Amino acid sequence: MTFSPTMKEMVPAADCSSLAADGHYLIRIVRSGIGCLKIGENFYLLRPGSAFIIRPGEEKSMILLKETEFLDFRLPAETAALMREKAPAFQKLDVQTVPAKMLENLELLSRECQEELQQQRPGSQLAVLEKQLAAELLIFQEGTDPGKTEEKIARSLCFIAENYVRDVTLHDLAEPLGMSISYYRRLFRQLLGCSPIDCLLDYRLMRAGERLAGSSDPIARIALESGFNDPNYFSRLFTRRKAMTPRRWRSSFRKI
C-alpha cells in the first residue's frame, strides 16, 4: 500500500493509465485547482472536492488548466477487493463530488496515515489500512454524483485547452452547450470561482510559462503562440499574475 498526502501537478494534458501501475488502484481527490477528466466520450469536471478512481488498465486522460493539488490513495488489488464489498459504488463510479466538510475529514485521515507510516509502530500498516478504508468509504458512500451541468462545464474546459491559441469568445464556449452567455458565465463562476475568460487567460499564461522555462524562443513569439495577439499586453499580464516578468521567469529556470 502506498500513500501520497499531497501531490501537485501542472500538466496541461496527461494519460492517467500509468498512474494505476502494478495492479494498484488510485483514488485521487482534488484539493485545489481546475481541470477535467476525459473517459471515452464522457467529460467530468475536476475542482476542489472532486474524487476520481483510476483502475488498472483503464484509459483516462486528465487536462489541468491550473496548478492542481491532490490527495492520493493508492490501493493494492486485495484492498480494492474489500472496497468492492463495502462500497459497491467503488466498482462502477468514476467521479464523485465530496462537500467541503468531507474534504477536511479526508485531509485529516491523510495526515493520520502519514503519521502512522512515519512512526513505524507495530500495527502501523493495519492502522493505515483502516484509515484508508475509512477515507474511501466516505467518498463512495457519502459523495454525490456530479450532474449534467458539471459535464457541460468540463467540456468547455476541454475546448479551452484545445483552442487556447485562437481568439476564443464567450459565444464559442456557451453556444455548443446550448446555454446563453449570461447563464454559462454565471454557472462557470458558481462551480469554479472564476470567470471563463480568467480561466482562459490563466491557461494561456501557464502554457507560456512552460515555453519560457523550456525553450529559448523569443518572448514575443511565445506570447503569440500562446494566444496573446499583443506581446506587450502579455508581458504586463504575466508580470501581474506571476509576480515577475517573463524574462525573469525564464532566468529563474536557467539557474536550476
Q: CATH superfamily assignment of the largest domain?
A: Regulatory protein AraC
β-sheet strand percentage: 15-25%
Known CATH architecture of the largest domain: Sandwich
Helical run tally: 11
Task: Sum up the overall morphology in one term.
Answer: globular
Number of structurally distinct domains:
2
Strand order of the largest sheet: 1-8-3-6-9
List the uncertain runs: none
* Structural class computed from helices and strand pairing: alpha+beta
Mean pLDDT figure: 85
Q: What is the CATH T-level topology of the largest domain? A: Jelly Rolls
Number of strands: 9
Order of helices and strands: EEEEEEEEHHEHHHHHHHHH
Main pleated sheet: 5 strands, antiparallel
- End-to-end CA span: 33 Å
Helix percent band = 40-55%
**What is the class of the largest domain in the CATH system?**
Mainly Beta
Which SSEs are present, and which pair or pack?
Elements (H helix, E strand, L loop, with lengths): L1 E8 L3 E3 L9 E8 L2 E5 L2 E5 L3 E5 L6 E4 L3 E8 L1 H10 L2 H4 L2 E3 L2 H20 L4 H19 L5 H16 L6 H5 L6 H12 L3 H19 L4 H7 L5 H12 L3 H9 L2
Antiparallel strand pairs: 1-8, 2-7, 3-6, 3-8, 4-5, 4-7, 6-9
